[in-house]
Amino acid sequence: MSISIKPLAENKRSSCPEEFGFGSVFSDHMFTQSYEAGRGWFDAEITPYHTFEIDPSAAVLHYGQEIFEGLKAYRKPDGKINLFRPEENIKRFNRSAHRMVMPEVDEALHLEAMKSLISIDQNWVPDQDGSSLYIRPAMIATSSKIGIEAAQGYLHFIITGPAGPYFQGGFYPISVYIADKYRRAVVGGVGEAKTGGNYAASLYASEEVAKIGYTQVLWLDAIEGRYVEEVGAMNICFVYEGRRIVTPALSGSILPGITRDSILTLAPYLGYEMTEELLDVHQILADIESGKITEVFGCGTAAVISPVGMLCYKGKEYFINDNQSGPVSKHLYDQLTGLQYGTIEDKFVWTQEI
Ligand SMILES: *Cc1c(COP(=O)(O)O)cnc(C)c1O
Predict the structure, then answer these.
(1) Which atom of ligand 1 is nearest to the CA of 257?
(2) Domains of the chain, with CATH numbers?
(3) Is 258's C-beta closer than 6 angstroms to any atom of ligand 1?
(4) How far, CA to CA in Å, does 193 sit from each of 79, 93, 135, 197?
(5) Using one digit for the tens of pLDDT, what is the confidence trace for 105-148?
(6) Which residues in the chain show pLDDT less than 50?
(7) What does pTM read for this prediction?
């Protein structure tokens, strides 16, 4: 199947504005393709960015049968554009689809769709330091029937938009509240899938901690309320004595991040010891108090690395490295962003030029 391209006339195109922040400005074009049971995928096309007309009874609007992905295109110093491990996002998209009883998409077509879309809107890939073009693939159940069962019709689409630097005015640590009342996901549920419901379920706790001055929620496992899982919509790592890094082992309710996976490969290469473990929150807090844990950071595509300066558990505050970001976080941040922006030699063959 090939992608039909119906671009805007050159004189109708806009260009990337000076100010864009994150998530509310979108590029000129988008990709869509449709699916019907019995027919498969059809009408793969790149068209001008547009709204959808959708039947009010569409399954996605009632039961949340939806998945998404998030990755970035990076402007290299020579003006060319890099993607970072895009096949991993596409594979995860299909794993999420499988879990949500949605049709998988052809991996090669999905990659081609992203690359063509970025080529057409290449003027939208910003070149300011730390900025990028955010790519948001998604799939929704569109067939109209109010009945609780997997839908017959789906829409797969990709939109893109410029993303400003995550850290403005410094690599400052965030403060994090350890959720003692709310849970994000449970083993056997859909925490491993990038599906909208997980995020809807997390909003209440995020709002509550924001009101008392915290930036993110740290999620514990849902069964014992004891094992560390994630921080906000990021995976989490703890640094012992500045040289050993630990991250929670994938439990079935943790989203398997590509940044996390990259750190698992990169950290040993940079001379750190790195392991995946079952991490008891009480042990973690004791190790912060005794000073054995020297750094804590979240990791994900948006921030790459987000240092954590303070954890609060049941009203008690635990400061990490005097609430300052530390050298291991900065080292990993510089190395990962160097690979993504093409300023460091890509020994792992993680990047693809468009
Ligand atoms: C997307 C996401 C991550 C990070 O994944 P990356 O592939 O590194 O961007 C971590 N946790 C949750 C809940 C996520 O949705």
Answers:
(1) 5
(2) 4-163 (3.30.470.10), 174-341 (3.20.10.10)
(3) yes
(4) 34, 8, 18, 10
(5) 999 999 999 999 999 999 999 999 899 999 999 999 999 888 88
(6) none
(7) 0.96
Ligand 1, from 22, 235, 305: best to mutate by most atoms within 8 Å of Cβ? Answer: 235
Residue 305 near ligand 1, beta carbon < 6 Å: no
Maximum separation of any 2 CA atoms in the chain, in Å:
63
131 lines ligand 1 (CB under 6 A): no
Of all protein residues, whose CA lies closest to atom 10 belonging to ligand 1?
234
235 touches ligand 1 (CB under 6 Å): yes
Separation of 210 CA from ligand 1 center, angstroms? 20
- Residues 6+ positions from 277 with CB-CB distance below 8 Å: 246, 247, 248, 249
Give the closest residue to 17 by CA, choosing from 123, 115, 122, 135.
123
Nearest CA to ligand 1 atom 5: 257
